[in-house]
């Protein structure tokens, strides 16, 4: 019986699961209990064509964690690890306990739209003797002039993305995944993020980042005819190995925002840097958030309304050969340093069928003259191959590890 079913049933008799009935130890509420709120009841399916955590809306809490395989661990042990992880993800996303010795951190909570996503880094393939199955698209990203990368917080053999609308549900999943790693893998780095909670605004709207700007206005949408070919690897193709069918490539960047410098700017200066109004995300050329930006519009003095180096101008797909990425980030705040400067910014995560045709050309162009680059610092980076979703009875990556 799942947490959701236990907690969502009014008039429960106070049944407590004993050791024989399920050692996770979840208990139903007393008779006066009310059903779960919509926030806790949200459930995402683990099995499917694509892995969860890509197409779903942004969640309120997130954890990113990368692992390195331990010395002596090979393909067989890696397969056992992905099998364990997939079963744990399936159970937790359904609102169940992780296993017999579940920590009960998420006791009383429903699934809370939990998603757990798994990916493979460049080094995974050499460690497991699968170099011939490593995709060309997983070649290391080039160096960018704006990079100030901490190698200890970059890359990794395995990558896990966790998102949920409840902080305890997200943490519970993080601990379960870490414990499942056992003797097979150790944590290389881990980062925590957050977004605005669902229901915090009068109606659903584009998220805001810590600079106060709307973030993700021009995200490609599943309703667009070319969405799948831009975001997901096709079922068959010459470039990617068969095991990547219906998968995607995730670029992960820890981008520190220099908030003290940013907040010294006036509103007009901030809007000129971005190219959009801060109040509603509309382009400076006019209209609403979804209005197409008029790149040629000028003011009375003949100056471009959207500055030539505005971030929104430079990143437009039609200014980058149609390159498009699905942005699905989290904000982060990791404290305040001794000088009173916040260590805060964006855990940038973007999804694409081919990073060499999407992320790389856009980032190169940003390198050459983005007005926003003066106020951000890229401190960590990773690229991961995220295979398609697992069918029922299968685990993520099975086609690679058992093919």
Automatic annotation (TrEMBL):
One of its GO terms (cellular component) is cytosol. InterPro entries: Dimeric_a/b-barrel, Dyp_perox_C, Dyp_perox_N, Dyp_peroxidase, EfeB/EfeN, TAT_signal. PANTHER family: DEFERROCHELATASE, DEFERROCHELATASE/PEROXIDASE. One of its GO terms (molecular function) is heme binding. It catalyses: heme b + 2 H(+) = protoporphyrin IX + Fe(2+). It comes from Streptomyces zinciresistens K42. GO terms for biological process: iron import into cell. PROSITE patterns: DYP_PEROXIDASE, TAT. Its cofactor is heme b. Its EC number is 1.11.1.-. Residues 206-390 form the Dyp-type peroxidase C-terminal domain. This is Deferrochelatase. Residues 51-195 form the Dyp-type peroxidase N-terminal domain. It comes from the Bacteria. Transmembrane segments: none annotated. Keywords: Heme, Iron, Lyase, Metal-binding, Oxidoreductase, Peroxidase, Signal. The lineage of its organism: Bacteria, Bacillati, Actinomycetota, Actinomycetes, Kitasatosporales. It is found in: Cell envelope. Its main location: other. Belongs to the DyP-type peroxidase family. Involved in the recovery of exogenous heme iron. Extracts iron from heme while preserving the protoporphyrin ring intact. Binds 1 heme b (iron(II)-protoporphyrin IX) group non-covalently per subunit. It holds the Pfam family Dyp_perox_C.
